[in-house]
Structures are given as C-alpha cells and as structure tokens.
Amino acid sequence: MFKKLTKELLDKFFSGDIITASRLMTRLENGDPSVWPIMREISLHTGKAYVVGITGPPGAGKSTITDKLIQLFRKNQYTLGVICVDPSSPFTGGAFLGDRIRMTQAIGDEGVFVRSLANRGELGGLAPRAKEIVQILDAFGKDVIIIETVGAGQVEADIINIADTTVVVTVPGLGDRMQALKAGIMEIADLFVINKADRQGAQDAVRDINMMLDWLPEGRWRPQVLLATANLNQGMQEVYDAILAHRDKLIKTDKWRERRYERNRSHCFAITEQAVISYIHQKTEEVAELKELIAKVCEGEVDPYSGAEKLIQKLFASADILKLS
User: Fold this and answer.
1) Span 46-253 CATH architecture
2) Considering the chain, what percentage of its residues have pLDDT values greater than 90?
3) Nearest Cα to 225, choosing from 252, 202, 251, 247?
4) Radius of gyration of the CA atoms of the chain, in A
5) pTM of the model
6) How far apart are CA 64 and CA 148, in angstroms?
7) Are the C-beta atoms of 91 and 85 separated by less than 8 Å?
8) Domain ranges in the chain?
9) Fewer beta carbons under 10 A from the terminal one: N or C of the chain?
10) pLDDT above 70: residue 113
C-alpha cells in the first residue's frame, strides 16, 4: 500500500501538480520521515536547474532585487522557483514570511513557484530543509531557482553550499572600510551589487570592494561590482547580465561540475550528520545505560569529553570517531 501511495504521489508530482509539490515541502519542513523514500526518487531527477543565491545584510534590498530578477528571467522565458528565507521568532518558532509582499509580479504567474521558509534558528542564512526544497523545485522542472537568504550578516555563508552563483547585496554607508574588508560574507560573492546607489557613498563602496578584490589569488574569478537602485529598476539589467555571464563562465571552465560535486558531497554529509544525531538522541532516551551516562555528564560526575567518548564506544563500537587520548 505504501509503495502504491508513493507511486501515485510521484506520478502527480512529475505531471506538474503544484499542490503535491507544496505538500511535499511542508512534510519536509515538519520532519515527516515518510518523505525520505520519495526524496530518493526525486533526487534522481535533479541537477538541471541553475541556482542563484541572493544574500547580504538586513535592509539591503534583497527582496526587491529578487523581484526584479524574477521579471527579467520571466521576460526571457525561464521558469522559476523562488525560496525566501525569513527569520523565526525565538518564542514561537514562526516567521512573518513577508517577502511575497514585495514580489508582486510573481503573484498569479504559473511560471513562478514562490516558497517562503522560516530559518528555525539556523545561523547560516538558510532554512533547515532548503537543500531538499531546491531539489523538489529542480525535479519539478524549474529552469532557475533563486534563494533569498535571511539578512544575517557576516555568518550568512551557507548559501555557497547550494548556489551556483552567489550575489552579495550591500548598500552605501554600512560601516567603515575595514569592516567591509573583514566581513566574512564578502568572501563568498560571485557578484557584488551595491543597491540604493542613489545614496551618498555608493562610489566609495565600489572602491572599497574593488580594493578588497585586488587581493584575490591570480586566476580566481573576480566578481563584478555593480551599482543598482532596484526599487527604481535602475541597473537591474546589468545585474541580470552579470549573473548569466558567471553561469556561462562556470560552464566553459567546467567549474559548474566542480560546484555540483561539492554541493552533492555537502548534502550527503549533512543528511548523514542529521541521521547520526537523531540516532544518538533516540538511543540516549531508550537505553537505560546511555541515559544514566548522560545524567552523570549533566550532574558533572563525568566530563563531557569522556562522556562523548564512552557514548561513541557504546553506540558505534569504536572510539576512532573522537580520539581524545
């Protein structure tokens, strides 16, 4: 019966049923384990979509830029999947999910599938199941997938593990030059966009970023630094063209394959880590000996390092995973 239901669901999904795709995403977000056999099948039909990451600090205009890019991609007959990640409430776990308000052109367009996700406390700028949602949109037949990350600042670097092209959006006047040079998020860009370029200091921001890029190793891709004022639709054609130029460069130099290789490797490791952590939590609740060990660690009778080593020995019959001695 389960196999029959799975086949029926997959048939609906691959026939382009939006409701089925949406329900799959919801089940993933809710941690439904029955969805994993379905994801195994879906993953066999991925790898065709081009993934663009839009990241940057809060208030930089990422949603407006995403909206304008949707319009440009649609003008050129691309179908799109759009993932908008919003911060979760530390109290309820919910999120406002308000990015759709700015994406007026996507409403009612059958060629655009917009999915809002709560980051649920993740610190890397993405949501816990963002990679799987990308796979669903890819297998669903979308040509381009745009991911707009949470505006989390310097630690927001997980997008490089999922995007083919990463666009870092910033605005004039965010901080002094040294702050711009040391910010970790600046190191992941394939393209820089100085948004709200009608503000004072836009040219200074361009100069500072280019100064940073002068330190790049020889032979490495040098990101373009573009000016835009997205709410006035100024400079967005140039941003769109630069994104496609980077895509073409990836394909010509075979970097596309390298990035896909690393993405799949990272995803496999992430699934493995999640499975191992879930297994550990389950066993330490079910097995009395392990429950007692954790209690001793909590009470301070056993130090956390010795506790971890003993836990690994009991669960995996090997201490090589965590060599402490």
Assistant:
1) 3-Layer(aba) Sandwich (3.40)
2) 44
3) 202
4) 22
5) 0.84
6) 10
7) no
8) 1-44, 46-253, 263-316
9) N
10) yes
